[in-house]
Amino acid sequence: MSLWQRLFNRLLRSVVGKLWATIMLLVAVVLLIVGGFLLQYVDMFSFQDAHMVKVLFVLTAVIGFSLSTFFAFFLSKKIQQPLLQLKDAADKISQGNYSARVQIRSSDEIGELANTFNHMTEQLDKLIHDLNHEKNHLASILRSMGDSVITFNAEGKVILTNPSGHLLLNQWSGIELAWEEVHSEDGEAGTEVPVPLRELFLSVMEEGRDATDKIHVLSSVWSVVMAPLQSGGIIRGAVAVIRNVTEEHKLEKLRRDFVANISHEIRTPLSMLQGYSEALLDDIVASPEERRELVQVIYDESLRMGRLVNDFLDIARMEAGHVDMHFQRVDLSQIVRRVHRKFQVYAKEREVRLISRLPETPLDVKAADEDRLEQVLTNLLDNALRHTPSGKTVTLAGEHVHVSGREFVQLSVIDEGQGIPAEDVPFIFERFYKADKARKRGTNGGTGLGLAIVKNLIDLHQGRIVVESAAGTGTTFTLLLPVEVNH
Fold it and tell me: Is the pLDDT confidence value at 445 over 60?
């Protein structure tokens, strides 16, 4: 029985008790009035007969009973029926029908009670409606959240999740985690808290304070914020908000690596510039030939720093989307011939054969930036010549190809160097990545940004770049540029 029903039944018993006492009082009053009237009547006429007295008392009793019965039915209809209506309305409310009302129009205490009851049900109906509205609003917010929300009770049982949290629980429950499961004497064996969250959950339940942490689950990084659920000073559970911060973690690592690598790349030429400059200032070098050699080293290192700064600015603009591209119809065979002529002298100095293979027909593409593509071929060819030993060959080639029903221009830079180790191939387009062994740079090496710039420029042309290499067999960079660009 609900609280409302118990309160109403107590009120009803009190009213009925008072009603019955009122009826008995009325009957007593009637009997006294009628009896007194009869006794006065008997006294007036000086009836001495006892039989007549008995008859009069019987008549008084009959009249009193009749009057009490009449008053009982009247008062029952007048008072008990509205109370029964109130009881029926209270039963409906206890069953969830908050629109129930009592139709009583009287202006007495029962009518006031009915009006108060109807006002109470209206307020209760409004309160329940507002609570349901807030509940639906919070449920919509939880469903739309990208973060995972999981609520646990004090025993570690899951009592509420949003869709993202439900998927996360399923994923973590099906993974063999690296953590060792620990079952404490406090009933941890029956908990549903995932192992990555268990230590944080126990800390929040013990200390009653918010806690944050970053956890690693396989290859992902998750940021967790957990807060206790308190009621009356008692911690009855905890709610965890979990966000996947893997990308942010990777970006932060890239930033740290970037700062470390750029510092390393700049420090080396700066040290050489400082050292050789001090040697010249202190007149340590006596002969003009040695002096000229030191000056040449200083000049080469300054050029290297200039290339580093230019490459750094290029890659920063590309990744920020601030590269100005001038697309127009371009014959790629003209770019290949121009780059080939530019590197002929450098190839002869290194005793490397530099040849080009081009078809007789033009290698036209309808939308390309001529200067940027020349920069791409320059970086690739410079890289190939620096890693190709004397007596070997570097080849520039171009042709038309069809891939998946689309027409492309394929450009290839093929060297006969020592190649790239297989474990380094997937990472060569990353900024500052240094392949070991055959690709290790000397003092005249590159900045470590050339291939990253090449990859970004090819992506801006909606093309593809593929590398094929193995240690000891040489390396081939293949560019696929679409003849017609999809918009």
Answer: no
